Amino acid sequence: MNIATLSAKKFLIGILMICLYAVPVKAQSALAKRYPIIPYPSRLIPESGNFSINKKTSIVLQYGSYKQEAEILNGLIKKKGGFSLSYRQNASDNCILIKNDPSVRSKEGYHLVISPGKIILSASAAPGIFYGIETIRQLLPESFQENNGTGTLSLPAVDISDHPAFSWRGMHLDVARHFFSEAYLKKFIDRMATYKLNRLHLHLTDDQGWRIQIKKYPELTKQGAWRTFDHIDSTCMELSKENPDFKIDTSHIIHRDGKTLYGGYYTQEQMRDIIRYAAARHIQIIPEVDMPGHMMSAVRIFPYLSCTGKAGQGKLFSIPLCPCDESTFTFADNVYKEIFKLFPSKYVHIGGDEVDKSTWAKTPACNAVMRKEGLKDVNQLQSYFIKRMEKFFYANGKTLIGWDDILEGGMDSSATIMYWRNWVPNAPEEAAKEGSDVIMTPDSPLYFDAFPNKTTLSAVYHYNPIPVALRGTPLAQKIIGVQANVWTERIPSEKRADYMTMPRMTALAEVAWTDHPGDYQSYLERLRYQYPRWDMLHIHYRLPDLKGFTDNNVFTDSAVLTVQKPLADMVIHYTTDGTLPSASSAILPQSLTIKKTVNIKLAAFTPEGNRGDIYVLKYEKESYMSPATVNIDHMVQGLNCIYYKGSFKNTKQMTTVAAEQISVVNNIRVPESIKAPAFGLQYRGYISIPETGIYSFYLTSDDGSILRIGDKTVVDNDGLHSAQQRSGQIALQKGLYPFSLDFIEGGGGYKLRLQYGKQSEKARNIPDSLFLHKKHRDG
Predict the structure, then answer these.
(1) How far is the CA of 59 from the CAs of 49, 83, 332, in angstroms?
(2) For residue range 495-519, what is the model confidence (pLDDT) as tens digits?
(3) Could you list the active site residues?
(4) Would you say 722 and 455 are in contact if contact means Cβ atoms under 8 Å apart?
(5) 15 Cβ partners below 8 Å, 6+ apart?
(6) Are strands 679-689 and 771-774 parallel, antiparallel or unpaired?
(7) Taking a C-beta distance cutoff of 8 angstroms, is the pair 95, 57 a contact?
(8) 510 sits in which H/E element
């Protein structure tokens, strides 16, 4: 670009806009509207003007290359504009030139130049052309109706050079716990393609169902694909009383032999069609047949596969396959031979997680194998099974992927590791040092089955796939990508799957594609322009969070509820009688004055009828609490932190064991000395309130936590759960107050943060100086 030829306005934009993130907020918002691209390109230079696609526009293919991708573009134009483009051999004005460019090093990279006269899209391989077209998709108007009958499609001028940060950009979908149709898988693939994700990991088998046809063992789907309603179904049915998204999909219910059965499976021909559909969008499907654990659906049919000769539950998980009987390997080999033939991907996932090995230790045949192979324990016996299967995979031209559990007994470097266990932080580094490729998919924040809340989208967006220990080292190259997982125990419907994945999928896409994701506000600005597209596609996404209140609110005389709407066309309905808000409930006024204790339920609705989360706001009238009568001269800065070792379901259970140690901390943080995967902490002392007022406290934790000030529970965030924020208010006079915060970590990786603000102030960290505790007297 020749800066000297630019107008003064364009010159200023050119300087400020080498990257979208470098501009002021107002300019950033305007540019997000003009270039609402997710994931954001590696380099984007805004240009002046627009290119108009009309019926006279043509597509020019250099040497006839990339015809399949060009057809996708033409289909997109027909869908949005109502007309198709003709093909020409020679480039001229008013054309879209698609050409090969060997200088684009990445096979998935592309160079897109949109000028008022033409579009030039170049890449060195078909995936790059495809991703350039997906960028064009996001720059096109949402629908033909937006053109006001002009018969043209307008694209903003721009110069984009783009390539992905990671080769593996994945989404996982568990179709075993709850089944999803072919049509839904294709919709899922479409939205993955839009956001440049390229791996779909299908969890095809588990205790609850076998979803892929294996011709040598037809009973696996004839029996194993169907079940009577079980505990995960009954949980969903209970949740559906307040949210219809949890209703069991009736299209997957049949009646056979006098029984009502739930389930379904894909024939091999159906799966081939899905694979072809994904391949046309440059997405590989990675099959997972989970072994040796999570195999109850197969063991029920073939009980000889377990060491006990029966199916059932072990101490922790279901009874696994028996690694000490050749019939197990015959079965596994036969299953995987058909999987290998069906799926063209070089990667096949064996699972290998959550194996209850207690039956192995009691089996004479296993003890004999362990003596023969020189195995020290049952962890090495699992490794023996996985390594034997790995050799079989390799002999058939496949690369084995396993969850990081398979590292426990030792693993060969030819296997690829999928890291999920947050509480084993060194696993990625150890696997990389051993030479294994690693895909990062940690429980928190990348398990999208965790109920979303106001913190989850930000947590995904700010996730860095490169572990701290590997950053800046050659071993960082062993981290080949990142993936989010969707386990479906509590996702029984397509609507619920939409809600749980969108918009989190877009945040994942930016982490996986963009070298250095920009600031979160820029992403949120661009995300706003995705919602109308999702409305047109009937995607049941999670609406952005409402703001302006806490969960538990207090007032001394009156309070005013003023809800901040993130989308202008939202309508907020509310109730005060305990019923759920619906589109026919009262509309919340811009400001609602509250003068008496009341519980308010409210929810936002879009014009298309999509309902957001239901918020339950408690308003309680109370007087200012009086401070404690204590001598500040007997106080020193910090809080006592009491450590309890063990696994607890709630904070109260800590009191059932003796404390391990007491230390002093400056603020609400987990001491670095605590390494146990599961533990409990009690913070005790005083908090100094600088001036009289109503204070809001925001407590984020994974797992449970409870905050008490004086004799009042301010925030109750107890129980085992993923990271979530709860908030509450308390009216306090200036002075010192007894302070207690209890926290438990259940073993999946912890998060703990406490913030506060006076009245409606923005939440901020509590200064260390406000925390005090009684100093100990010598002697």
Answers:
(1) 21, 13, 50
(2) 999 999 999 999 999 999 997 656 8
(3) 206, 294, 354
(4) no
(5) none
(6) antiparallel
(7) yes
(8) helix 504-513
DSSP 538-551: T--PPPPPPBS--S
Q: Residue 457 class from Cβ within 10 Å (0-12 exposed, 13-18 middle, 19+ buried)?
A: buried
Summarised one tens digit per residue, pLDDT across range 548-568 is 888 999 999 999 999 999 999
341 contacts: CB under 8 Å, gap ≥ 6 = none
Per the prediction, the chain carries an average pLDDT of 91
Q: Going by C-beta distance under 8 Å and a sequence separation of 6 or more, which residues neighbour residue 416?
A: 347, 399, 400, 401, 402, 436, 437, 438, 439, 480
pTM: 0.89
Written as one letter, the residue type at 194 is: T
380-383 long-range contacts, CB within 8 A, separation 24+? 380/409, 380/410, 381/323, 381/324, 381/357, 381/409, 382/292, 382/323, 382/352, 382/355, 382/357, 382/406, 382/408, 382/409, 383/408, 383/409, 383/410, 383/411
5 against 170, higher pLDDT: 170
235/216 Cα distance (integer angstroms): 35
What are the tens digits of pLDDT across the range 621-640?
999 999 999 888 889 999 99
Q: What is the DSSP letter of 593?
A: E
Token pair recorded at residue 729: 């208010």
Q: Find all residues with CB under 8 Å of 391, minimum gap 6, and list them.
A: none
CA angle 722, 726, 732 (to 5 degrees): 150
Nearest CA to 77 out of 124, 149, 141, 156 is that of 141
